[in-house]
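Exercise 7. Given the encoded structure of a 181-residue chain, write a plausible sequence.
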């Protein structure tokens, strides 16, 4: 696993992990959601029952693909705008605790950012610093209902443990770098 800054605009406060030889998760997710029509078609076909469960309204696979792509474009722009703002504390406006019943912001908490059914999962280092672990399309009310969402919970925990084991627990531990143990 390695960790790198997402945007080269300033000393970044938003980082992403990459597993093995893969792309940084932030880039990989938006590539899938915006450009990989085959991935989206397969995902929605495999999750057709959830798509038609009325949790988000019953829509066709084609409509779901278009909705996902539009949401992903806007979601990515929102991250870029927040990073470009002079106030780095703005990042905490886009992330919330993973559990909807948790209201306490603390270091190394598991958090989410969402746009429609798109989710970006991250570990919060401070109000200024987040490490993105993965993301998903969430068509159900809870993450425990589907294996692909349970895998996201596992990646969040793996990322949190990695950060602790490598002493990356404070925003001062991050800077212009790509960390590879």
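Solution.
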């Amino acid at each position: 696993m390695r960790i790198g800054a997402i945007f080269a605009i300033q000393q970044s406060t938003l980082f992403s992990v990459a597993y093995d030889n893969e792309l940084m998760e932030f880039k990989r997710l938006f590539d899938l959601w915006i450009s990989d029509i085959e991935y989206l078609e397969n995902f929605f076909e495999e999750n057709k029952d959830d798509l038609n469960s009325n949790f988000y309204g019953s829509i066709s696979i084609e409509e779901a693909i278009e909705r996902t792509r539009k949401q992903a474009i806007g979601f990515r722009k929102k991250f870029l705008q927040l990073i470009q703002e002079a106030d780095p504390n703005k990042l905490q406006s886009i992330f919330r605790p993973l559990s909807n019943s948790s209201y306490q912001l603390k270091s190394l908490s598991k958090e989410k950012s969402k746009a429609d059914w798109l989710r970006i999962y991250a570990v919060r280092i401070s109000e200024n610093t987040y490490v993105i672990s993965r993301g998903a399309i969430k068509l159900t009310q809870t993450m425990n209902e589907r294996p692909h969402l349970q895998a996201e919970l596992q990646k969040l925990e793996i990322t949190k443990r990695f950060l602790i084991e490598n002493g990356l627990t404070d925003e001062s531990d991050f800077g212009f770098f790509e960390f590879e143990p």
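Remark. The chain has one domain: 2-179. Students should compare their own answers with the one above.
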